[in-house]
Amino acid sequence: MDITFSYKGNDYKLEFDRDVITQMAHRDLTNDFIMNNPEVALPDLFYYAFLKHQRYVNRKDVDVMFKKIKDRENFFVTLYELYRAPIESLMEEPDEDDEGNISWEIHR
Description:
Strand order of the largest sheet: 1-2
Largest sheet: 2 strands, antiparallel
Helix content: 40-55%
Radius of gyration: 17 Å
Strand content: 5-15%
Mean pLDDT: 91
Distance between the termini: 43 Å
Order of helices and strands: EEHHHHH
Number of strands: 2
Low-confidence stretches: none
């Protein structure tokens, strides 16, 4: 899933991956911070969503675009879902049919 839009003749695609999520975590922009401080975190979440496909986007340009987003509530709910997707994929179980899956045990 991704979000696409055009602004001033340029097309943009917003999406997150594990690398971007890791960059965010290094700047303490974590799920807890986003949930507890949305008024501070949303502009940063919006900025980081650009980095997978537009790595060299100018932050000032992103801040201008942020102010022009329509249907903001739905947009930010969707943006948050995009952010959560790579995190949730880490917790998915591997395909049961894959013979290379690793089983593990605890020894105490």
